[in-house]
Amino acid sequence: MSRDPLSQGFYARPSALVARELIGTNLVRELDGERLVGRIIETEAYGGASDTASHASRGKTPRNDPMFGPAGFAYIYLIYGLYDLLNVVTETDSVPGAVLIRAFYPVSGEASMSALRGGKAYPQLANGPGKLTRAMGITRVEFNRHDLCLGESLWIEQGEPFSLEDLLVGPRVGIDYARPVDRDAPLRFRLALPRRSV
Q1: Separation CA 38–CA 26 (nearest Å)
Q2: Mean pLDDT score of the chain, rounded to an integer?
Q3: Which of 7, 26, 110, 138 is geometrically suited to a Cys-Cys bond with 159, CB 3.0 to 4.6 A?
Q4: pLDDT 10s digits, 156-174
């Protein structure tokens, strides 16, 4: 099967631009000889020291170190002691930034994804950042600092185009601790979940 991961140059740009352009791309995970594919339909952009919603706003730590570069690597962190969340590192070396992958639409391997999610089905399969990592077996232990540009085990590649009229832009969610200017910034990008016939 072909592998055509997005290049490091794609990620080495401002977080907001990368977050917007990741919409419609395909997240690919090779697991036990099967290719699991999800079309990314929701992202959030996070910047550096000036973005109080970002992990990088408190400076470099062992946890957020991947955010400081290089671009194109995975930054995966644990929240609530339960969920691993997948981010892709953006910006340039030493300039921290990342994009949180919040949701995807299953394209291939849906049955295996459902099994990994304990039988959950679409649309509840991967409509949240903790759900999508479980649906693909993406863990912090295995993939934090993973180079997404290699096309090995986990990567992102081009997907199908979509109408700009279907792109929704608004504030990020779950960041009540941030300054109002950061909390309300239009840095969340999403497509509506496609409808399926019964």
Answers
A1: 5
A2: 94
A3: 26
A4: 999 988 988 999 999 999 9
**What pLDDT is stored for residue 197 in this prediction?**
56
Beta bridge partners of 31: 34
Cα dihedral across residues 150, 154, 27, 55: positive or negative: negative
**Whole-number Å distance between alpha carbons of 14 and 90:** 7
pLDDT class of 198 with cuts at 50, 70, 90: very low
Q: What is the pLDDT of residue 3?
A: 84
Please classify residue 122 by burial: count the beta carbons closer than 10 Å to its beta carbon, then call 0-12 exposed, 13-18 middle and 19+ buried: middle
How far is Cα 65 from Cα 150, in angstroms, rounded to an integer? 20
- Separation of alpha carbons 107 and 165, rounded Å: 22
φ/ψ of 189, rounded to 5, equals: -125, 135
State the residue for tokens 């929240």.
79
Task: Quote the pTM value.
Answer: 0.95
Rounded Cα distance between 67 and 51, Å, is 13
